[in-house]
Protein 1
Amino acid sequence: MPDAVVLLSGGLDSYTAAAIARADGYRLFALTVRYGQRHMREIDAARAVAAALGVERHVELDADLSVFGGSSLTTEESIPKDRPLDRAGAPSEIPSTYVPARNTVFLALALAWAETLGARDIFIGVNALDYSGYPDCRPEFIEAFERLASLATAQGVGGARFRIHAPLQHLTKAEIIRKGLLLGLDYGLTHSCYDPGAGGRPCGRCDSCALRAAGFAQAGIADPLLLR
């Protein structure tokens, strides 16, 4: 059984990507990064998701990007709310919730662990359709990082080929949800909201909440998180 490092945020997408890796026969090593985000609810969700997936090991790593600022997810800046979905997913508009170079940092950390494990496969739950305009969710970025992985590692120079899997890249949120349900996933364990209230209750108004709600609506399924 081959090993794979999966980036696990506790969100719906990373849970589904990791479950796809498991279904494809990989033994999972899950990496969750505490990057200085405003709340810890997603870390709790990542722990629950890792347990549900039965990962071989779950590492929570500190890489505090809030030291740099630059994002409403890592500062006290207001989270954008009530944006129309056509704007929320517009590639030409990068919202304040973009964390500079976050996925580059995450993939670099995952690559370091993968090389140490002797693993060749890394899974990330980025999506190029239902997303908030982040440049590091695009296929071009994933392809470029995969090329970099072979140039930047001892094993890559030695001829090993690292693969960056983004199995959700071209799926709508509704298609992701349907795929996850076929894999038996409990989305009630996940967390998507950028600005949760007391007890971790989703705000229902940020981009992430709006995209999640639209996905469940289009899939014709009630969001189990809201039923708890």
Protein 2
Amino acid sequence: MKKFYITTAIDYANSRPHIGHAYEKVTSDILARYKRLRGYEVYFSTGTDEHSANVAAKAKELNKDPKVYCDEISESFRELCRLYNISITDFVQTTEPRHEKSVSELFRRINANGYIYKGHYEGWYCRSCEAFYTKQELTEDGSCKMHGTKADLIKEENYFLKMTAFTDKLQKMIELNEFLIRPATRRNEILVCSNRDTMTFGIPLRAIMGNKIPDRRRTDGLCVV
């Protein structure tokens, strides 16, 4: 039997679901159901992205433990799936032990093969978007065009994935449409930072790399995207 995998975006657990979340899940469900009718074995996944600075800040604002808060928000997304009869196969929370175990093992293997390096990153960061922007992508007064809030100039010392080791192979795959990225603007996001130095609510990087981390002043958070 042919297999088909589909996933929605895993939603940030910094607020309860709205109609936009329902729209994405319903349209994904239409595709999943169509594929099943065509004879495919479908694995349909959704879930919540809970390792976020905004999530930790919201939990603190409500005077709740971040995990307790995330479980409450996650349940509201599960209820959304039940309400709209979304035929998901699995619902994943990034705070689940199975997710942490998989991420930790993947990071350990990548690091063991020499594909992790330490470096500095500096850029204009919108805390609401949880994304970096160039000066040209902001308004004249340095605000995020989506949220209208001032972006912060952030300098971090992080661990990065050495994408240069795979550049030639990936470039060839993209040119041959074997690994097509849409839209084209997302190609700039291939070189990703593998951890966040300022995160406190995440998968502990130190637990994976042990004494290879020289700075023990903080609990480094691993940001998975």
Protein 3
Amino acid sequence: MSQAPFARRELTVTGMDELGAYRVLRVSDPDGPEPQPGQFAMLAAGEHWGGGEDERPYLPRAFSIARRSGTESHFLLEDVGPGTRRLCELRPGDRLWALGPLGQGFSLGGRDSDRRRRAILVGGGVGIAPLAILQDTLLRAGGGPGAGADRVTVLLGFRDGPRTHGAALLREARVASDDGSAGHHGLVTDLLQEELRDDSHAVVYACGPAGMLEGVRALCASAGIPAQLALEAGMACGFGACFGCVVPRRGGGYLRVCVDGPVVDAAMLEHVEEHAGGAGGIE
């Protein structure tokens, strides 16, 4: 698993692409470690990173690494608060502080039985971010666990029309929308249930809001299908020191999302806590 040097890096913004309600932040990161799908970075703008008259600094924000293209790292943003708004304002040439890659990503080796299964990627909202780099990795490896490229199925769910444009981040995705503006009118877990009914010999990789992840966990648990869930929780440090991102684990005790996750085996959880939905980042 790639781990970042224990120091943040000052990077240069190379682009900010519009994707409906989302933005794709591209930064030059030639010296950064190669990330594993599902890992994240702690980001902070190089300037004007704070609020109030004295610009009291914000905490860095945790974002899944959405793609690695040459020496560029890509992050999927949505303006949902002061921190994400400032990051969405960045333009080419601006500076950005980054610490990453951090955490545990998706395990693609897994058990021998998992490697022979079809890969189903399930994402919701801005939580589709880590599935893009995961799809890239699976396709480079020949399509997934022991299979061809036709054995990677992508299911994405969004709230409304402007957000469905995010599906362009991945290839050949089936889309569900809450308002019926694109694809299936309903939940992405409806599509997952349909896929598993047609072919249950699968392994599921998921990231999205807590309700979606709990639906995925429950569906896979009842069908005996292995699943890995990318969680998110409020993080102050990103490397396990503050214990601010803990979630309860099955059988007692807690997991620190930043170091024991963000990707965890669904079997480790009794249920997905409401605050532990996976996404591209927090406010």
Protein 4
Amino acid sequence: MAPEHTTAAYDRAVQFGADYIELDVQRTKDGVLVVIHDATLDRTARGVPADCTGRVAEKTIAQIESCDAGTWFNATYPALARPEFAGLRVPRLADVLTRYAGATKLYIETKEPESYPGIESDLAAVFRQNAISPGTAALPRVFIQSFSKASLLRFKELDTGFPLIQLMSAMSPSAIIAQLPDVRTYAAGIGVRKADVTAGLIQSAHAACLLVHPYTVNDDHEMLSLLEMGVDGIFTDRPDQLRDAIARGPDRPAGESGCIVVAR
């Protein structure tokens, strides 16, 4: 619907009722946390090659902020192109927090944390500087997710208040289930590929008091199937579509909060 990880995309996510917006966090050469999915600029940035190609970790914030983060979308998806997308920038994490913390909730991933030693401390510091609190156990204001258990544990040492989500790479449901007792010792839930979700996996996770948030689901039939199985949240590029699926999907028992929508 709009160039990923830009204010244009997040504005639409809020407009269409996303419960959370996903922020993939990388760090610049001079220590600024920025919101971009890839560890490199090549796919989504355009500009002077010396500034707008290569690894985020090797560029200063000034270099990255000189890049156009929207023109690639217009070229790749001409049917969705808009003039205002050209010239969008890679946002700083602090600016995203300022713009959206009062409008929606946040689902933050430390991307490739082994490339950014100390990024967990940087993230905790940005939270303090921007008065970002974890919310309540029943309705967290922020989730922290990572494929790296070590990164999650480092963040937990800094602040025990924020719920953690252990992301899982492609693996069988039985392999995921085998990890649940360990995951439960430090995390509040798991983020799994939609293809790896089964009713048995959800039952096992819930028995271990773990949430199940599959990614990334943009198909109506898949949304409805996952809702029927009882997932607790869904990552999607189409929050409007998922909102409609939730309205048409199974009723939740009284007292349950229902499925959350996480816009990617």
